[in-house]
Amino acid sequence: MNKLFKLGIGFMVIGLVLFGGYKLYCSACTKTLYTKIVDHGTRITGEDKLGKFYRYIYNQESFDEQGMQTKITFNSEKQEDKPLKLNSYLKITYSKNKGVNKWEEIKKEELPKAVLNIVNSK
């Protein structure tokens, strides 16, 4: 019985180490990108149990802190029919495996200098 208990604990420890390593690996695979909203996106409407919703899909050029470009696709879903504000700036968490994980609107002053020069020249 004691041997089985130790074996079970050993498997749990190995499982936790593997899971923690995987989470660490996944977090290292994300990068921060920045973009400027230049169009209203593609509007899609639908209905769910909460009622009607509106989704806007955006295909954007985005840039990392050094100004390297990445093409991304993401959406904005709201209960009201409003696209993202034109000329607003977004900070995006992106991974190659999942695409855009999350985004948030930021102020122009929060953009890295290299990104600010690029997005304002377009």
Question: Can you tag this structure with a few keywords?
Answer:
single chain, 122 residues, alpha+beta, 3-stranded antiparallel sheet, 2 helices, 6 strands, 43% strand
* Straight-line N-to-C gap: 70 Å
- Quaternary state of the chains: single chain
Please indicate the percent range of residues in DSSP E strands (runs of 2 or more). 35-45%
**What's the total count of β strands?**
6
Would you identify the regions where 5 or more consecutive residues have pLDDT less than 50?
A: none
Mean pLDDT: 84
Find the structural class using helix and strand composition: alpha+beta
Number of helices: 2
Tell me about the biggest sheet? 3 strands, antiparallel
With strands numbered from the N-terminus, the spatial order across the biggest sheet is: 1-5-6
- Helix-strand string: HEEEEEEH
**Share of residues in helices:** 25-40%
Radius of gyration: 21 Å
Using the alpha-carbon principal axes, give the shape: flat
Describe the structure.
- The protein has 122 residues and is of the alpha+beta class.
- The chain is 30% helix and 43% strand.
- The protein contains two helices and six strands.
- The protein has helices spanning 2-28, 113-121, and strands at 30-36, 42-48, 51-63, 69-78, 89-95, 99-106.
- The strands form two sheets. Strands 1-5-6 form a three-stranded antiparallel beta sheet.
- A hairpin with a 3-residue loop joins strand 5 and strand 6.
- It starts with a helix and ends with a helix.
